[in-house]
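The passage that follows is intended for readers who have already worked through the single-chain material. We present the inputs for a multi-component assembly, then the predicted structure in tokenized form, and finally a short commentary. You are encouraged to pause after the input and sketch how you expect the pieces to fit together before reading on.
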Amino acid sequence: MSTDRVAVDVKVPNQTRYLCLIGHIGENIARALKHYGGDKEKLAYDLNLVLTEAVANAIRHANEGDPSKEVHIEITIADRQLVLRVYDHGQGFDIGQFAAPRHPMEEHGRGIYIIHNVMDEVVYRPTDDGYVLEMTKNL
Amino acid sequence: MNLQIEDKGAAVLMDVKEERLDAHNSGELKAQMLKLFEEGKNNLIVDLSSVRFVDSSGLGALVSGFKNASSRSGSLKLSGLQLQVKSMFELTRLHRVFEIFGDVDEALASF
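Having made your guess, compare it with the prediction:
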């Protein structure tokens, strides 16, 4: 059976002005899939959302808002599996503490919960010079 | 951020004229809300009918406004949510917190 194969590798400055660009890349990839049987517009929104949350997290927390740093994003689709990787240069954090839904009156800390809700598997692991948030979804 | 603010009498309307409400521009919305609270305008309607996409930072800014309005005996109400934006409120259970109206007129009539 034919499947979609996509590999996108992009680096952006550590600035929130690039969130829109990264989100739109995710959205457009979803819309371009030829062999996806589900709701493409829902997938498009979800990829936009997950990439926005993950990159915003890297910019603000891991890279501590330092505009001279970079965020590296990889989007891969192969064998009906979508993998998003967002690399940062931070010290890491305990992803488990943000996995549960926040109290409605909390202003922060919903991003990881949202990512968990949309994706099938979420792993945060160290790399040579920081951490990578690896998010997998079966298509 | 493209934000149109209009005093409607019973409440101040904040019309968010942006496609996205995210970590890049949600701080500005929060700052504008605080400015209104400081002017004693504690009843706000935030109209999101132009907003196609909202992230956790956008939701956080609205929660901040909601809490500030409530603590000043006012209220912050929402109108014009697009379907996918509404589903974000449901995912995060915030639809139980905010009063959400179909359009600005309905929201205004509730004050």
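Commentary: The first strand of chain B starts at residue 3 and ends at 7. Chain B has one domain: 3-109. How closely did your sketch match?
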